[in-house]
Backbone:
């Protein structure tokens, strides 16, 4: 009877060791999987941040170019406006100078 009990206890102890080993292997596998997953998530976050930063820089560059084009167009418009107004002023000055040089009474009497 003692032999049977010893055998049962031995089998039970071996079963406990097998279960403990299996549990340890499961914990190790879980830990390894979590580390791998964390590394993947970190890599994905870094890639997303890089893509986001590149997108921001690209958009910023495009808008800077658009602003520069708009400023250039405004400068051209202002330049054209100033030239047109300058021509108008020159014409007005010419008329005034003509009237000063030849007064109205001289033109009527001649």
Residues:
């Amino acid at each position: 009877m003692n032999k049977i009990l010893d055998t049962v206890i031995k089998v039970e102890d071996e079963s406990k060791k097998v279960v403990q080993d299996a549990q340890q292997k499961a914990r190790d596998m879980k830990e390894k999987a979590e580390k791998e997953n964390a590394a993947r998530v970190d890599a994905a976050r870094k890639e997303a941040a890089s893509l986001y930063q590149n997108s921001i820089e690209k958009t910023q560059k495009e808008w800077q170019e658009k602003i520069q084009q708009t400023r250039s167009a405004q400068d051209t418009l202002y330049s054209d406006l100033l030239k047109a107004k300058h021509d108008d002023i020159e014409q007005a000055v010419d008329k005034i100078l003509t009237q000063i040089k030849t007064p109205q009474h001289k033109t009527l009497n001649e």
Q: What stands out?
A: The chain is about 95% helix and 0% strand. Residues 75 and 85 are 15 Å apart (CA to CA). The mean pLDDT is 90.
